[in-house]
């Protein structure tokens, strides 16, 4: 009889242990789901993180006499606003690229950095060099129009690798891309001197 009671007691303890484990696992799962949902919601908010080209200076943008090599010297200043009150952002990779008429001209990298919550960070990049750019008739016509006006249209792309930080917890890595279209006045141009650069908002793509 005692043996039977001891066996029943062991079974009851085992059942309680299984139930307790199941409850703890369920609570942990709910916490993880809620945390991930909050992080994703915070990340996907349109006004959560804003990228803006705050400043630009173009001191050279000319073709060689044979119209094949494009020489350029461009400085860009980015402003990144993190309006989240609880999330920080690790930028493990920050690569900037510029394009003209769908031709990639150059790339520049920024060392990794961390942005705290409710903060604004300024990031600067410089693109200088030359690249082979073969324009068609339409592209050549566009370049001539922009040369006369002194203002050139360029596309900027940022390739990022980021991690969000919530308290002491870091999330997995996200790889968003940021795209900006800017119009920059050539510094040596008198066509529209004094107009200055108009800051430009960028679009984030996850």
UniProtKB/TrEMBL annotation:
UniProt entry tagged with the keyword Magnesium: no
Transmembrane segments: 14-44
GO cellular component, one term: plasma membrane
BP GO terms, sorted: defense response to other organism
Boundaries of every Late embryogenesis abundant protein LEA-2 subgroup domain copy: 78-180
Alphabetic keyword roster: Membrane, Transmembrane, Transmembrane helix
Domain of life of the organism encoding this protein: Eukaryota
Protein's cellular compartments: Membrane
Membrane-topology descriptor: Single-pass membrane protein
N-terminal signal peptide: none
Keyword Acyltransferase: no
PANTHER family xrefs: LATE EMBRYOGENESIS ABUNDANT PROTEIN LEA-2 SUBGROUP DOMAIN-CONTAINING PROTEIN, OS05G0367900 PROTEIN
Name recorded for this polypeptide: Late embryogenesis abundant protein LEA-2 subgroup domain-containing protein
Source taxonomy: Eukaryota, Viridiplantae, Streptophyta, Embryophyta, Tracheophyta
